[in-house]
C-alpha cells in the first residue's frame, strides 16, 4: 500500500489487516473484493485488535467503521435475514475495494452537521421557558382551586336537596296522618249522630229521611275537635 498523509491511521491499519495473508483466518476480502469479512469476531477481538488498535473491543471497532461510513452488509437467506451468529460479519464502503488503495483518500470521517453554538440554549431562551412554565403552573393551581370550590358547593347543594327531600317526605307523612285522623273523626261523629237520630227515623217518611241525612252530613262537629285538629296540623307542618 502506498502511504499517504491524507489517509487516516485507522484506514491504513484496516487496509493492512485485510491485505495481509497471515490474518486471513480472522479478516479477509470477500470473493468480489467489494467488501471485507470478519470471520470470527471473538478471536479477532482477542488476538488481532490489541496488536493494531490497542484494545480488544469489537463494538469499538464497529463504531469506528461506522464513523468512516462503512455499512454492515445484511444477507437474506430464503427470505430470512441472516443473523451475525450464523456466519461472518461483512462490511462495505464504496471507496474500500481490493486493489484500489488509492481510493482510501476519499473516505472521510463523519462530522456533526450542527455547530456547538447551535446546541447550546441561550440564557434568554431558558428564562422564557422557565417563566412560561411558572405561568402554566399558576394557572393550573388556580383551576385546581376553583374545581375544589365547585366540588364543595356541589356537595353542599346535594346535602341541602337531601334534607329538603327528607323534610318533604316527613311533612307528607304528617299530612297523610292528619287526613286519616279527620276522616276517622268525621266518620265517628256521623255514627254518633245517626245513633241519636235513629228512633226518629223509624216514624218518618222517605222525604223526611232524605232531609234528615242531609242535615246530619252538614251538621258541624264539636268546636273542641276542630281546635285539636288545627293544633296538630299547625305543629307538624311548622316543624
UniProtKB/TrEMBL annotation:
One Pfam family per UniProt: HSF_DNA-bind
GO molecular function: DNA-binding transcription factor activity; sequence-specific DNA binding
Domain HSF-type DNA-binding: 49-73
PROSITE patterns hit by this protein: HSF_DOMAIN (PS00434)
Keyword Calcium found: no
Taxonomy, superkingdom: Eukaryota
Main subcellular location of this protein, as a coarse class: nucleus
The entry's keywords: Coiled coil, DNA-binding, Nucleus, Stress response, Transcription, Transcription regulation
A Gene Ontology term for the protein's cellular component: nucleus
Coiled-coil regions listed in the entry: 133-167
Listed SMART domains: HSF (SM00415)
Localization per Swiss-Prot or TrEMBL: Nucleus
UniProt-listed InterPro entries: HSF_DNA-bd, WH-like_DNA-bd_sf, WH_DNA-bd_sf
Homology family: Belongs to the HSF family.
Name the record gives this protein: HSF-type DNA-binding domain-containing protein
Organism: Jaculus jaculus (Lesser Egyptian jerboa)
Amino acid at each position: 500500500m502506498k502511504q499517504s498523509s491524507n489517509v487516516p491511521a485507522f484506514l491504513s491499519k484496516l487496509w493492512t489487516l485485510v491485505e495481509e495473508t497471515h490474518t486471513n483466518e480472522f479478516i479477509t476480502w470477500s470473493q468480489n473484493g467489494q467488501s471485507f469479512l470478519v470471520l470470527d469476531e471473538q478471536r479477532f477481538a482477542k488476538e488481532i485488535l490489541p496488536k493494531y488498535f490497542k484494545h480488544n473491543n469489537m463494538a469499538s471497532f464497529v463504531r469506528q467503521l461506522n464513523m468512516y461510513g462503512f455499512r454492515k452488509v445484511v444477507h437474506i437467506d430464503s427470505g430470512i435475514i441472516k443473523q451475525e451468529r450464523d456466519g461472518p460479519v461483512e462490511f462495505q464502503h464504496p471507496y474500500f475495494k481490493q486493489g484500489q488503495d488509492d481510493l482510501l483518500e476519499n473516505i472521510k470521517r463523519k462530522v456533526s452537521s450542527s455547530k456547538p453554538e447551535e446546541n447550546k440554549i441561550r440564557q434568554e431562551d431558558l428564562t422564557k421557558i422557565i417563566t412560561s412554565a411558572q405561568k402554566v403552573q399558576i394557572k393550573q393551581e388556580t383551576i385546581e382551586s376553583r374545581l375544589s370550590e365547585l366540588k364543595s358547593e356541589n356537595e353542599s347543594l346535594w346535602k341541602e336537596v337531601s334534607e329538603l327531600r327528607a323534610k318533604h317526605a316527613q311533612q307528607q307523612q304528617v299530612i297523610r296522618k292528619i287526613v286519616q285522623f279527620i276522616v276517622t273523626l268525621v266518620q265517628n261523629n256521623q255514627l254518633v249522630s245517626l245513633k241519636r237520630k235513629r228512633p226518629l227515623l223509624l216514624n218518618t217518611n222517605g222525604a223526611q229521611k232524605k232531609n234528615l241525612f242531609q242535615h246530619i252530613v252538614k251538621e258541624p262537629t264539636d268546636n273542641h275537635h276542630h281546635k285539636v285538629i288545627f293544633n296538630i296540623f299547625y305543629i307538624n307542618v311548622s316543624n
